[in-house]
């Protein structure tokens, strides 16, 4: 890689920033892939000064801004809202902007290594950047919008607090793909709709104002639909919004079995 | 589109999807992996069992010979393994059904998993003892 030293500097901001008080050096081990030079993904380690209150995203910024500007990843809000920085951190799917370094520190003053890899099951374009298109296709396929028939009401569609509560959990989804790319079924068969699509179908299936439940249930009754789920709970564990994903899937399964 | 761009696309296709990292899944994932393994083991046992039992119709003599070979200590150990596999598969099967059909199932999936493992150990420890005691005493005790 000696020939690309100058290229690696590209986009970096130059001098390293001062190391803040209380910072410890952690090893950030990143699974990198650049289709133009690599035939396989490869691990690369960086020593990064980190505060316990830093988030993993801060460490990635440090590398990108001061060490190697070619490091590629997505992020936008940096506050757990936009859902763009799902990644595999120490072997589990998390948002880089929500995981604190102090929760990853190894105890007893031992050196800390934090591994970061792209989420699994989607094609990698570069480093942590994956192609989200298959994920979004599955999302669109369940018709995640209000479907109604008959005349348009002259005022807003009223819903009781109780009816709203029914699907409250699944309204929280930010489409980060942590869940779908933690699913062993999805890794093996990318054609599975995946938990995120089912969560978003659930959000409308159980909405008292919506009239498209039957259509969506038909879609999810498909061979690639809810019956693929093996209740491994990886998705529930991975969801940064705390959505009870497997529970939602199971509710859709039961709606298919008993509601019609 | 140059050649290198085409090569790039091929590489993306190859380096895609599974990146070879080990996912530290929920205990539920490992329970599912174990469920698969015990299921496949049980299937192969049933397969072999159908074959050896079918043998009795072909030749009772050959059947007796085959059954005689089952009396070795190694087969005895395999039997214990088989009971363990079937027991796990059955208990976890109940757990999965509860997860699917009992509204509170997903909430209690982990307690249910720990419970089934405890039950498994409680059954398997004495079970293995009673299954092995004859083989062991025949091998070492001489009675
Ligand atoms: S519970 Fe179902 S959808 Fe969620 S990770 Fe497991 S198999 Fe996939
Ligand atoms: S259900 Fe949770 S993990 Fe899945 S896409 Fe939505 S917010 Fe992300
Ligand atoms: S950057 Fe927006 S969710 Fe992490």
From TrEMBL, chain A:
GO terms for biological process: respiratory electron transport chain; tricarboxylic acid cycle. Its cofactor is [4Fe-4S] cluster; [3Fe-4S] cluster; [2Fe-2S] cluster. The keyword Signal does not apply. InterPro entries: 2Fe-2S_ferredoxin-like_sf, 4Fe4S_Fe-S-bd, 4Fe4S_Fe_S_CS, Beta-grasp_dom_sf, Helical_ferredxn, SDH/FRD_Iron-Sulfur, Succ_DH/fum_Rdtase_Fe-S, Succ_DH/fum_Rdtase_N. GO terms for cellular component: plasma membrane. One of its GO terms (molecular function) is succinate dehydrogenase (quinone) activity. SUPFAM superfamilies: 2Fe-2S ferredoxin-like (SSF54292), alpha-helical ferredoxin (SSF46548). Residues 163-185 form the 4Fe-4S ferredoxin-type domain. Pfam families: Fer2_3 (PF13085), Fer4_8 (PF13183). Belongs to the succinate dehydrogenase/fumarate reductase iron-sulfur protein family. This is succinate dehydrogenase.
UniProtKB/TrEMBL annotation, chain B:
GO terms for molecular function: electron transfer activity; metal ion binding. GO terms for biological process: tricarboxylic acid cycle. It holds the Pfam family Sdh_cyt. The chain crosses the membrane at residues 29-51, 72-91, 111-131. InterPro entries: SdhC_prok, SQR/QFR_C/D, Succ_DH_cytb556, SuccDH_FuR_B_TM-su. One of its GO terms (cellular component) is membrane. CDD domains: SQR_TypeA_SdhC_like (cd03501). Keywords: Heme, Iron, Membrane, Metal-binding, Transmembrane, Transmembrane helix. It is found in: Membrane. Its cofactor is heme. It comes from the Bacteria. Belongs to the cytochrome b560 family. This is Succinate dehydrogenase cytochrome b-556 subunit. It comes from Actinokineospora spheciospongiae.
